[in-house]
Amino acid sequence: MRLAAPLTAPGEAEELAIAGATEFYCGVQTRQWQDAFGDHDSISRRQGKANLESMEELKKVVQETKMLGLPLFMTVNEDYSKGQLPLALELAEEFEALGGYGIMVKDIALMSLLQKKGSKLMLGLSLLACTSSASALSFYFDLGVRRVVLPRFLSINQVKLILEKFPEVQGEALIFFDKCPFIDGYCRFIHSVGYQTAPPEIDSGSVCHEVFSHDVSYMLPACFELFGFPPVSPACAVCSLEALTGAGIQIFKVGGRGRSLKTLVKVLRFISAASKIPETNLRKELYRKCFGTACSKGACYYSGISDE
Description:
Elements: E1 2-6, H1 13-19, E2 23-26, H2 31-37, H3 55-68, E3 72-76, H4 85-98, E4 102-105, H5 108-116, E5 122-125, H6 134-141, E6 145-149, H7 156-163, E7 170-176, H8 187-190, E8 193-194, E9 220-221, H9 222-227, H10 241-246, E10 249-254, H11 261-274, H12 280-291
Parallel strand pairs: 1-2, 1-10, 2-3, 3-4, 4-5, 5-6, 6-7, 7-10
Antiparallel strand pairs: 8-9
Helix pairs in contact: 4-5, 11-12
């Protein structure tokens, strides 16, 4: 089983690999980017401690993962403005020069520029690209994409129908953390961004009705305001491992960029152990033992999704 785990600091890779990770991904938010565009999430849809802080840290992480013989992807998975695109491209090219394996990307212009420059980076299509059909994947395939994180609103049968048409493309699915009650990939299109400390003109007791993206006062996504904070039981898909594999998924991704190393090690050990247990009820019991709470339908990936 291929398990992709997030890295947020040098020195984490070996311990995560021992726990079961077979590849890694990371974000980078340099001082250069922050000085130019602010310290919000405009580089990789995560900010603060979810990212490495410098190219020096990135160099160390690349070296550590290469020593382990395991691939490292860097997330540059936003849509970039005309002013941001050159720096995003520079970051991707520097990562490749350091020996990075691939990038998780969404921006079509960035993909096109890398293709024209002859980049050898593996292009992985971010979950945020919301690839919900074979036609969409065909478009990205022509831009060099050879890996795709498929959105969780697809049924397992729909995942299979898409991937079977593209045997050259590696399918990836999130299996732990980060489940959103809204639709994957449309965060800033189908709902608003809310604030814990709302701007003066906004009623802090209600959800904002405009999208205030790229704003340093951003604190809380509207899905949390509408549905409450994430459930005590973390989102999980271990009961669907075999079905997802049968549908063509090759890589299982642990979300949670920015979570502690201790937490990620615990999750990887759980997934590795659960994958060796065939009975669903025993997997659920292991979940309870590991996380101190029963799993729930609201935090379960793929179960109950119609194949219609």
